[in-house]
Amino acid sequence: MDVKYERAVHNELIQVTCAEDSGQYFLITPKLLPNLTYHENVTTLIINNGDYLPETRDKKGNATNYGDLAAHLAAYRKLLRKS
Predict the structure, then answer these.
(1) Confidence category of residue 50, pLDDT binned at 50, 70, 90
(2) CB pairs under 8 A, 24+ apart, for 68-72?
(3) Which of 12, 46, 54, 71 has a Cα-to-Cα distance from 61 of 20 to 30 A?
(4) Which residues contact 46 (CB under 8 A, 6 or more apart)?
(5) What are phi and psi of 29, to 5 degrees?
(6) How far is 51 from 61, CA to CA, in rounded Å?
(7) Is this structure's pTM higher than 0.90?
(8) pLDDT-based confidence at 79, cuts 50/70/90?
(9) Domain residues for 43?
């Protein structure tokens, strides 16, 4: 599936699964597109697999990859508090 349709399918899944009368839904995927839209009722778990996951940071101290999961979760929680 190309990026356009992956994003469209993801958005449709979010709308359907976050409706008040919908059940629980699990999406297991080897990758996700960046900057996807999520509903406030969505819980995202990222599982990294490997012997070494670097904690790479830019000059401002921001995490630059998923190796630093704690920093990404903190940034996500901060973003949720703003909205």
Answers:
(1) low
(2) 72/46
(3) 46
(4) 66, 69, 72
(5) -145, 150
(6) 24
(7) no
(8) confident
(9) 3-82
Q: Counting Cβ atoms within 10 Å, is residue 17 exposed (0-12), middle (13-18) or buried (19+)?
A: middle
How many domains are there within the chain? 1
- Convert the pLDDT of each residue in 2-30 to its tens digit: 889 989 998 998 888 888 888 888 888 87
CA dist 64 → 18, 68, 76, 81 (Å):
30, 8, 14, 21
